[in-house]
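FORM 7B: Structural annotation worksheet

SECTION A. Query
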Amino acid sequence: MASIDKFEDHCWKDVVPEADMKLYRPYARETRVGPNAALLAVDLYNLVYRGGAVSPYDVADKYPSTQGIYAHNAIEPIRRLLAAARRAKLPIFYCTQDVRPNMAPVGASATKRRSPPPEPDDFHIYHAFKPEPSDVIIYKQRASAFEGTPLRSHLKLIGVDSLIVCGEATSGCVRGSVLDAFSNGMHVTLVEECTFDQTELTHKLNMFDLHHKYADVMHLDEVEAHLAQMK
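SECTION B. Predicted structure
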């Protein structure tokens, strides 16, 4: 649990005006990992790592969906989070895009982005986060991991009341999944160092908004410390 005086001690402090911080003070609270938690890793697929650990601006012409350095900076933090969740024996769910043929009508997509046809392995989970046999992979067609998928029923079946969320994009599929989890009565913890987007400003502003309204943004070491107590 993080104390209320640390509520704004996060990545958005350099972009959110002080006047806006004051307006959002009624949201300040202690943050925590909720009970009976599972880990949800959102869209950690190959496509966002294309082009390597460089600025997305430098390779966007060739790899328009890359998240470049932001994706690569989060690799080790996400590996740490996954390891901590496994030690604590938390259920682990991954989600990725469903690109099977005949799976949706023309025009159905997760976002409005214009994208080239996918490569065969674009939406495979990135090798650094290889799922284990006990993990579950959710294939989705929309932004949220809940929309049109069995995730909600799976979580109910195994008694999950809370989610720890990581992945990308903060403004898109992470945001959609967090909102749906919150709307379904779940406590959501969003791990700052393990969440990323294609641009810093988009990432920081969405983290700020999600933290105040729908999720508890926590630092990785805080979440690791909580999970270590669950052994």
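SECTION C. Observations
Strands lie at 37-42, 92-97, 136-140, 162-168, 187-196, 216-218. The chain has one domain: 11-228.

SECTION D. Sign-off
Analyst initials: ____
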